[in-house]
Amino acid sequence: MIGADKSRDPAHASRRRQPAATVLAAAAAAGSTGSQRQALLRLLRSAREAGSNGRHHHGLQAAETALQLAGEHGFEHLRSEALALLALHRFRLGQLADAIPPGLEAASLLERPADAAARAEVLCTVAMACNELGLAHDGLKYALEALSAARLCQQPLMLSWALNRAGLCTFSAVGDLEQSVALLQQARELAAQHGHLIALFSAINNLGSSYRTAGQLAQSLAQAGAAALLAQSLDYFQQAATLATTTDNPHLQATAIINLAEILTDLARYDEALTELAQGRELARGGDFAALQHRADLAEAIILHRTGQLPAAIAVLQRVLALPGEQIEYEMRVLAHEALYRVYKDGGQFEPAL
């Protein structure tokens, strides 16, 4: 169902590491401080560009090499940027627990007023990593710190990102959909005003996420408003998926399509969901985005269960739950356990269900 994880293939890893390793070797050979500093700046630029175009494996290697070079040659003033980029790429690749320490270390180095924008940016990353690990209150804490820093730096785009993260974390931590939507709509408006496609996508996508979670909760409680909440979520996810097609960012595209498949599954539109999953999985596989492939697996298992294919659903869920903790989001692990319990229960296998 899922091809080999190339990130664990030594030959593939070697191919991914080659550009950054080449720069580091060239810097060492050059010897001079000026040459080493230029090599470091090239690595940081490469890591930043990789964050914009979704080449997160490349960005991760560039950030790791930049951090090594900064430490070896005493470029402390550039070390914080390397740490922040390392946190970002780890987060995007689903290495959530490993993203937090470098992010917090970077934030601790960025406490001057002049560093407010960089501090806001890295705290946004930390907030999202915490949120997706199920540390909702920690996520909200760092999101609000990011929002304070963003207001200090007075950069509208950075304020959009911080409002975005605060909006998503507000719903996760305290369940306040109205406040979450208000913050995310502000983020959306700022991103649209300044023509930033990725920030706009993120705000719309997270509006879909907040409405979806609210709809799932209402559905589980048999509340009358569940269908309307899920329909609103679908609308936002469709908008996000359309927006993603205008970019050349494969990570963004795969994320949008898998989100769309998940909400279609919630709405019992299984054939449409499977079509989207096939496309999303192909993009995730092509980009070697393991965390997105695992999400696609979980969505497929839920469809298999709901369409009566219980043994196949069990096999998929057991593979998902066998993943190491650092390779799977906390929320996904909880959902996989819940899904496996329901499959066993519906199949009359009460002992493994317990």
Word description of this protein:
With 354 residues, the protein is mostly helical. It has a domain at 1-89. It contains 17 helices and no strands. It is globular. It starts with 9 loop residues before the first helix and ends with a helix.
Give the structure's gist in a few sentences:
It contains 17 helices and no strands.
Mean pLDDT over the residues: 88
Number of strands: 0
What portion of the residues fall into strands of 2 or more residues? under 5%
N/C terminus separation: 28 Å
Task: Detail the poorly predicted runs.
Answer: 1-18
Which key terms come to mind for this protein?
354 residues; mainly alpha
Write the layout of secondary structure elements.
Elements: H1 10-30, H2 33-53, H3 56-73, H4 76-92, H5 96-108, H6 116-132, H7 136-153, H8 156-174, H9 177-193, H10 197-220, H11 226-244, H12 250-266, H13 270-286, H14 290-306, H15 310-321, H16 330-346, H17 350-353
Helix pairs in contact: 1-2, 1-3, 2-3, 2-4, 3-4, 4-5, 4-6, 5-6, 6-7, 6-8, 7-8, 8-9, 8-10, 9-10, 10-11, 10-12, 11-12, 12-13, 12-14, 13-14, 14-15, 14-16, 15-16
